[in-house]
Amino acid sequence: MAGFDDLASERSKAQFDVEEMKVIWAGSRHTLEVSDRISRLVANDPVFRKDTRTMLSRKDLFKNTLRKAAHAWKRIIELRLSEEEAAELRFYVDEPAFMDLHWGMFIPTIKGQGTEEQQQKWLPLAYKMKIIGCYAQTELGHGSNVQGLETTATFDPQTDEFIIHSPTLTSSKWWPGGLGKVSTHAVVYGRLIIDSKDYGVNGFIVQLRSLDDHLPLPGITIGDIGMKFGSGAYNTMDNGVLRFDHVRIPRDQMLMRVSQVTREGKLVQSNVPWQLVYGTMVYVRQKIVSDASCALSRAVCIATRYSAVRRQFGLQSNGIETQVIDYKTQQSRLFPLLASAYAFRFVGEWLKWLYMDVNQRLQASDFSTLPEAHACTAGLKSLTTSATADGIEECRKLCGGHGYLCSSGLPELFAVYIPACTYEGDNIVLLLQVARFLIKTVSQLGSGKEPVGTTVYMGRVEQLMQCHCAVQKAEDWLKPSVILEAFEARSMRMSVASAQNLAKFDNQEEGFLELSADLVQAAVAHCQLIVVSKFIEKLQQDIPGKGVKGQLEALCNIYALFILHKHLGDFLSTGCITPKQASLANAQLRSLYSQVRPNAIALVDAFNYTDHYLSSVLGRYDGNVYPKLYEEAWKDPLNDSVVPDGYQEYIQPILKQQLRNARL
Ligand SMILES: CCCCCCCCCCCCCCCCCCCCCCCCCC(=O)SCCNC(=O)CCNC(=O)[C@H](O)C(C)(C)COP(=O)(O)OP(=O)(O)OC[C@H]1O[C@@H](n2cnc3c(N)ncnc32)[C@H](O)[C@@H]1OP(=O)(O)O
Ligand SMILES: Cc1cc2nc3c(=O)[nH]c(=O)nc-3n(C[C@H](O)[C@H](O)[C@H](O)COP(=O)(O)OP(=O)(O)OC[C@H]3O[C@@H](n4cnc5c(N)ncnc54)[C@H](O)[C@@H]3O)c2cc1C
C-alpha cells in the first residue's frame, strides 16, 4: 500500500536521532514525558473526539464544548493534574473555550494588577472555578486604541462604590471570549471618573451573572456576538457583547496595584508604572508566540507527510510516479515553513524566559526591562502569527485539492488560527509599537544611554552602517557570524534611515504617520533578526543525539536564507549585500533543501503529534491516506441517503421542466 510503504521508507532514511530531537522540540525530557502522556490520555478519551466538529450546528458545537470543558475539569481534579499537565491537557483538547480566558487572562490580570488583598480574595475562588472570569477590554467602537474606551467607572463617595456604565452604543463591550454565555465575572476596563475628572483607563472586577441561576444581574445586558469565520473553528467560543446600565460595584473591586482610590475619593499613584495596566497583554502575547510554533508545525506535519505519500507525474522505470516532495518547487515552499516552525519554537522558549525574568523584576519593583519586554512580545507576536497564518494556507495549497477538504484538518486549523493576527493587538498596530521603540533607541545612541537586550547590536552603529558582507562563495553563507552581521546591518540601516526621515518633520507625530509603512518594515527587520539570533544562540548550547545538531543547523540556515531571499529588496537597497552575494545565498538555500529532504518526515515526527491532535486524514502517521479519505467521505451527513432531501421539491421539477421543453 502506497502510504504505508512510503512513510516507513522515509523514516528509515533519517540521518539523526528522532527521539533526541523530540526532547529538543519539547524543551526537556520531562516536558516530553508530560506532553506524550497527556496527549495519549486525550486521544483515548471519547469525550474529546473532534472528528464531527465542522459539521455541528452552532448550538450543538457550543454545548459539546461545554461538555468537554466540564469533563476536562473533572479529569484534572480526579487525576490531580499539576498546572503544567492541565495546560497540556487544554492544548491537546484543541478547542478554544471560556477556560482559556479564565485561566489565560482573568486570573493573570488579578495576579498582575490586583493588590495582595485583592489577590487573596479573588484568586482562591478563581482557582477552584467557583467563579468564571473573562477579560472585557475591547468595545464596539475601540479595540486597538485602548485609551479611547468609553465605558465609565464613576466613583460615588456617598456609597463608596463605582458606577459602571455604558454611555453609548459604541461603548458596548464587544468580543471578549467566554463573556457571551458562560462568565460569571469579568475584568472590565473603563474610564476612572472621580469628581467629574477623567483619570484614564483602569480595570474593575465586575460580577455579571447570578451564581444561583446564571441570569445576568440587574443593569447588565449580555449575549453572544454571532457566528465567526469557518465551520467549527473559533465558534466554540462565546465571544460576547455586554452593556452596563449604572451597575454598582464596591470600591475595592477596582484593581489597585497601579493606582488606588481612597474612601475619600483621592487617587493615589503607587511607584508602579501606569503601563502595567497593559500587563496582561504582554503575558498573553508571549503565550501566543509559543503557540505559533504549534499551529505552524501541525500544518507542516500534515503537508510534509502527505507530500511524501502523494505522487504525480514522472513515471519511473519501476512504474511508480514521483513523490511530490521531490519537486524542488514543493521543497522551496515547504522546507522554509518547517524551518520557521523550529525557529518560532526556540524564539518562543526564549521569550518565555524573558517574560519570567521581567516578571521577577516587577515583583522586586524593577521596571527597567518592561519597555523592551513590551517591544519583544508585541513584535514577535506580530511576526510569528502573520507567518503562521500564511504558512497554514500555504500548507493547504501544498496538499492540492485534498487540502481543501475539512478532513485534511487544514481548513479548520486556518480558520481557528487567523484571528491571532488580530486579537491581542492587531499585527500592524503592534509593529508600530516596535517601531516607536526602535526610533527611541536610535535617537538615544551617543547620549551615553547604552542599548540593552535585543537592541545591543545598535551600540555598534558605526560599524554596522559601513560593514560589507564577506561572502565570496555559497558556503560562506553557512557561517553564523556572516548571517548575523547581514541581518544586524539591514535592521540597523533601516531603523537609522527611518529615524533620519522622521527628523525632517517638524511634527514628529505627523512624520510617524506619514512614514508608518517604512517604520513597519524596519520593525519587521528587527524582529526577524531576533528570531535568527535566538536560533543561532540555541545552536551554541550542548545538543546531544546523533545528527541532531546538524539538522538544526541546516534548518537555522534555511530560515535565515529564506528570509534573506524573501526580503532581498531590503538587503540590496541598504547595501548590506551585493546582487552576486544574493545569488550565492540562493544557491546555498537549494543545497540546504537537498540536505533536509531525506530527513523531512523524521523532522515532523519529532513534533510527536498524535493523529487525534492532527485530526487530518492527509497527515496520518501511517500514511494510509486514500482508503481513509474514501471512508471519510461516506460519513458526511449528505451521504445518509442516496437520494437527497429536496429532490422532489427542487430537482425533479427542473428535470421534468426540461423534459416538457424538449417535447415542445
Ligand atoms: C474545551 C477545552 C477545555 C479545557 C479545559 C482545561 C482547563 C485548565 C486549563 C489550564 C490552562 C489553560 C491556559 C490557557 C492559556 C491560553 C492563553 C490565552 C489565550 C487567549 C486567547 C486570546 C484572546 C484574545 C484576547 C484579546 O484580544 S484581549 C484585548 C487585546 N487588546 C489589545 O491588544 C489592544 C492593542 N492596543 C494596545 O495595546 C495599546 O492601546 C497600544 C496600541 C499599545 C497604544 O497604547 P497607548 O497608551 O494609546 O499609546 P502609546 O503612546 O503607544 O503607549 C504609551 C506607552 O505605553 C507603552 N506600552 C504600550 N503597551 C504596553 C504594554 N503592553 N506593556 C508595557 N508598556 C506598554 C508604550 O511603549 C508607551 O511607552 P512610552 O514610549 O511612553 O515610554
Ligand atoms: C477571535 C477574537 C477574540 C477576541 N477576544 C477578546 C477578548 O477576550 N477580550 C477583549 O477585550 N478583546 C478581544 N478581542 C478583540 C481584539 O483584541 C481586537 O479586535 C484587536 O485588538 C484589534 O482591534 P480592533 O478590532 O479595534 O481593530 P482596528 O484597530 O479597528 O483595526 C482595523 C484596521 O485598522 C488598522 N489600524 C488601527 N489603528 C491603526 C494605527 N494606529 N495605524 C495604522 N493602522 C491602524 C489595523 O491595522 C486594521 O487594519 C478579540 C478579537 C477576536 C477577533
UniProtKB/TrEMBL annotation:
The keyword Cell inner membrane does not apply. Pfam families: ACOX, ACOX_C_alpha1, Acyl-CoA_ox_N. Residues 278-439 form the Acyl-CoA oxidase C-alpha1 domain. Residues 17-132 form the Acyl-coenzyme A oxidase N-terminal domain. Residues 480-656 form the Acyl-CoA oxidase C-terminal domain. One of its GO terms (molecular function) is acyl-CoA oxidase activity. This is Acyl-coenzyme A oxidase.
